[in-house]
Amino acid sequence: MTEQRVRWGILATGGIAAAFTADLVDLPDAEVVAVASRSQESAQGFAERFGIPRAYGDWNSLARDEGVDVVYVATPHSAHRAAAGLCLEAGRNVLCEKAFTLNAREAEELVALAKERGSFLMEAMWMYCNPLIRRLAGLVRDGAIGDVRSVHADFGLAGPFPPSHRLRDPLQGGGALLDLGVYPVSFAHLLLGEPSDIAARAVLSEEGVDLQTGALLSWESGALASVHCSLIGGTATTASVTGSQGRIDIPYGFFHTDRFVLHRDGREPEEFTAGPEDGTQAGLKHEALEVMRALRAGETESPLVPLDGTLAVMRTLDAIRDRVGVRYPGETGETDETDETELTPA
Q1: Which of 98, 152, 247, 286 is catalytic?
Q2: How is residue 342 annotated by DSSP?
Q3: pTM, whole model, 2 decimals?
Q4: Maximum alpha-carbon separation in the chain
Q5: In the annotation, is 98 catalytic?
Q6: Three-point CA angle 133, 134, 137, nearest 5°
Q7: Exposure string over 34-65, b if 16+ CB within 10 A, otherwise e
């Protein structure tokens, strides 16, 4: 694959699938050629909405469609192992939503399968592809604030979500951590790597999923990260990283930010803002562009969202769940992908 248009298949028809597809159709070198759902009616309605030529009422037909270069898996995370695995088995390249899987074991299985097939695989962590987040990480890496001492990040929604909602359903991997907490945890990993120690506490629902979770991550360097997520309280949804010589603050919506402020000792604060092409609404486009760049380059993973990093995040999420006592039934299974909704704050 070099300069030709990249042909996308969409697996699932919920809110996040619609948001991603809407961004894809605006990209001149992307073509959405197929969509699949377990319901033919749902797939057909989605296809008509976005002008997609092929609609499948089963996942297998999409996985085996030789006219698809890459499949975007947009089911709830409880079905990621099954959906992404089916596509990889059939030789498709895959972009899979986060949380990448229910647990690290499932993530390891997908990574091993992708390597066995020689297929591209990437977690859809759009935050890592955001130009401002990339610039922030570069500043930290280059020592703009000295040695990193601490990271703080939170993501909370006011709710309330009824017990029938997928976010409260253990069978669908419900809870705050995998839906929302994956962002603060991934932000800490981006700046510090995998922690050496983890402590956590949570408030659990009657169904056994976490309604609110806080974790303290620590590193051998002495750095600490406090991360928090909630389904029962709308938080500031901000982030900051403090170093020995300064601090960077990111305002509300840190994971799809269009600005941040660098504070350095002895200097005036410096604000960094997105250019015209980098607005927050273009966030999903950035991950699509990275997938297409990698495919044309013949790469099987992205340096922006490396598979080792995804596995490390999954290990941290597993450890937090272990600390707070959240267990999912069998930790496998499929769910109704049409329940997936976009939870990003407006």
Answers
A1: 98
A2: -
A3: 0.93
A4: 62
A5: yes
A6: 85
A7: bbbbbbeebbbebbeeeebebbbeebeebbeb
